[in-house]
């Protein structure tokens, strides 16, 4: 069978199985098995497949049509232009999370331009990466923390996009921390981030040691379980998806963590569910410790990411 014909038939089978973007998926599986890039896949369309290639392709097709996520089959997922290793222990990076990155980069550049100007002296409490203790002096670094880092996609992307910053990447799952470390190594960010096991309810963050906190915490309510796609429920870690108290427990924990760990004027960025914008803003108002709170919408027009500033009190 020729490559072109295999792709056409595979796309049809995937569509029948209800798989998203069936043609793209067929191409990705073919590229994975044959080791071809996007262009070679087109150029070699008339090439005849060898029996063992068909066998290997059929095996991956069977996994995908049974519902296994493409990212688990290929072992990686593209996020903000980089390839991240994905394991069953971490959430698969989502395209809508790129909004959080865009906003964090805007915020970080604003903080960089203010750094050292004092008043809101945002720069430099040296947390030695692990965030355990600050020295209380103005040094040369800017520090952020990523709470619930999973694959590390948020923290590592920020570290690579922001050469003046150092990140502490925390996750409660030691398997996730291992995946984040592997991603940091693979993307050559290991000197810019520290991956650490830690609970965002009791995060080991130096008080007032951070200029920016980011988090895409678990935020789905138990009551919304029936609305979650079967594929997600079957293959992604529930600890990364669900949160008690109407899905708000981890968002509230991240806000408490930010109240303690951010410098005056430091920024917190939270991803949340489409219906959680108002609850997140309410949580942020509770102790009057945050100001200039703005919720941003994703490409689908849904409230997705809330950005706020730690007051100077
Ligand atoms: N921060 C990771 C991501 O955005 C993991 C998020 C999570 O586990 N809830 O993919």
Give a summary of the structure in a few sentences.
The chain has helices at 3-16, 22-34, 38-43, 51-65, 70-74, 98-114, 153-161, 174-186, 230-235, 238-241, 244-247, 249-261, 277-285, and strands at 76-79, 82-85, 142-147, 165-171, 193-197, 210-215, 262-271, 290-297, 303-310. It is of the alpha/beta class and 313 residues long. The strands form 2 sheets. The chain has a 7-stranded mixed beta sheet, with helices on both faces. It has a two-stranded antiparallel ribbon with strand order 1-2.
Helix and strand element order:
HHHHHEEHEHEHEEHHHHEHEE
The structural domain count equals 2
β-strand percent reads 15-25%
The helix fraction, in percent, is 40-55%
How far do the termini sit from each other? 70 Å
* CATH arch. level architecture of the largest domain: 3-Layer(aba) Sandwich
CATH third-tier fold name of the largest domain: Rossmann fold
Low-confidence stretches: 117-121, 123-139
Shape: elongated
Mean pLDDT, as a whole number? 91
Quaternary organisation: single chain
CATH evolutionary superfamily of the largest domain: Vaccinia Virus protein VP39
Number of strands: 9
Structural class: alpha/beta
Bound molecules: glutamine
**Strand order within the widest beta sheet:** 5-4-3-6-7-9-8
The largest β sheet comes out as: 7 strands, mixed
Radius of gyration: 21 Å
CATH classification, class level of the largest domain:
Alpha Beta
